[in-house]
Amino acid sequence: MLLLVGLFTFQLLLATGGTGEVFRVDQEDKHLLVPQLIRKYGYPLEEYQVHTEDGYLLSVHRIPGRAPTGQDRRKYPVLMVHSLFSTSADWILIGPRHGLAYLLADRGYDIWMGNARGNRYSRQHERLRVEQPAFWNFTFHEIGFYDVPAMIDYVLEQTNSKKLHYIGFSQGTLVGFVALSYRPEYNEKIVQLQALSPAVFVNRNPSTIITILANLAEEISERYTSSNKFHFAGHADGEAKFVQRLCLPPTQILCRLLIHDVAGANPRNLDSKMLQIFLGHFPAGSSLKQVQHYAQMIQDGLFRQYDYGDPKLNGRFYGSSAVPEYNLSRVTASVRTYFGYNDNTINYRNVKRLEQMLPNLAGSYPVPDQLFTHFDFILGNNVREVLYEEVLQRVMDAENGLI
Q1: CB 285 within 8 A of CB 396
Q2: What are the Cα distances from residue 221, in Å, to 162, 217, 229?
Q3: How far apart are CA 310 and CA 299, in angstroms?
Q4: Which of 87, 203, 222, 315 has the smallest number of CB atoms closer than 10 Å to its CB?
């Protein structure tokens, strides 16, 4: 189950990672909010609140691009969407000269980093209170169907642009594919979708722990809902505190075993101080229903909507007892995929399966580090050299029509 995957994995790495201090970041960064971090490292920041059709208020963090000079053409804006239980921090935590948002901003791009409903930056609604169960009645489907289109439209309106670049990591790619398959008109608004470790098919996972957690998802849900709790792994929740304690003695041996099982083993590529900083920002929360949805996809190997487990309920919501699958043939926007062979969370064979179903695949990039794991995509010591430079080049190519 991707949710506890993330929760466990980063703490495990804390016990096994290197201490090379590749990134020029400070220990205090784990206590700072994303806007504070961006300002601290000398970048301009603007904050916006995006309203969705169903009433959620989403926080979006912007690093404004430089105005074009001379004969330069104004670049398309970039929308960046984070992974499960995370935030816009995915794109900036490893600091200037390394974080992908900073690298793009340095090249003059106008950066917009979204925050999905339910995370620590997007816990407001026009009518509902965060304490109400109805606030948490969503999965990644609603994030893709409502949040992503709302953010796309807002960015295009604010920048007076017809298109934007879309960059997603893990769930950030998944919700992009949901949006483009259910609202195909948005394909015309995407220059190109850069899909980093796309979490579309999440079975074929070699992790014993993920399999066990997926099998326990219903039981976990029942226990939580019986206590009138409908969200999971919020920033200040008990789950987050558990994660923070997990790798303290005497459980460090357990941590080493878990990291290899859940994420793939590449401990030297993850700096221990960087991981401590990350744990000040992760997990940032989402809905319990979303946890169940991922568990269903792990078990059935399909990319489809939430299964209510009752033919009558499915019929009520979908008009049929069969749960509809997402139609990837409707994703006509140009897409590039990026994957790691040692990514236990998103198995590379699942990425290849996705590629076969996309009608406009522009390219596929296996990270040239055989040990590259799921979390190296945002925290790896070598992520700029082996991944981000490639992403930057492909964004610039798409910008210039070289799709």
Answers
A1: no
A2: 42, 6, 9
A3: 17
A4: 222
CA–CA distance, 269 with 17 (Å, rounded to integer): 7
**pLDDT for residue 8:** 41
- For the chain, how long is the longest CA-to-CA vector? 63
Q: Which of 135, 198, 214, 189 is nearest to 333 (CA)?
A: 189
Angle at 21 between CA 20 and CA 25, to 5 degrees: 170
Count how many Cα atoms sit within 13 Å of the Cα of residue 129 in the half-sphere of its side chain. Answer: 2
Encode pLDDT of 203-217 as tens digits. 987 788 788 888 888
Q: What are the catalytic residues?
A: 170, 374
Residues 136, 288: Cα–Cα separation, whole Å = 7
DSSP per-residue string spanning 206-262: --HHHHHHHHTHHHHHHHHHHTT--EES-TTSHHHHHHHHHTSTT-HHHHHHHHHHH
Q: Average pLDDT for residues 380-392, to the nearest whole number?
A: 97
Q: For helices 217-226 and 208-215, what crossing angle results, to 10°?
A: 50
Beta-bridge partners for 47:
61
Q: Please provide the DSSP assignment of 303-351 as one string.
A: -B----SSHHHHHHHHSSSSPPBP-GGG--S-EEEEE-TT-SSS-HHHH
Task: Identify the CA nearest to 270 among candidates 366, 392, 371.
Answer: 371
Distance between CA atoms of residues 368 and 380, nearest Å: 13
pTM: 0.92
The whole-angstrom separation of Cα 342 and Cα 274 is 21
Per DSSP, 271 falls in state B
Alpha helices in 93-248 (DSSP H): 100-106, 140-142, 148-159, 171-182, 208-215, 217-226, 238-246
Contact 61, 36 (CB under 8 A): no
pLDDT tens across 319-345, in order?
999 999 999 999 999 999 999 999 999
Which DSSP category does 162 fall into?
S
| Non-local CB neighbours of 253 within 8 Å, separated by 6+ positions | none
Q: Which of 57, 6, 2, 23 is nearest to 271 (CA)?
A: 23
Angle of the 2-16 helix axis to the 252-262 helix axis, nearest 10: 130
The packing angle between helices 208-215 and 252-262, to 10°, is 90
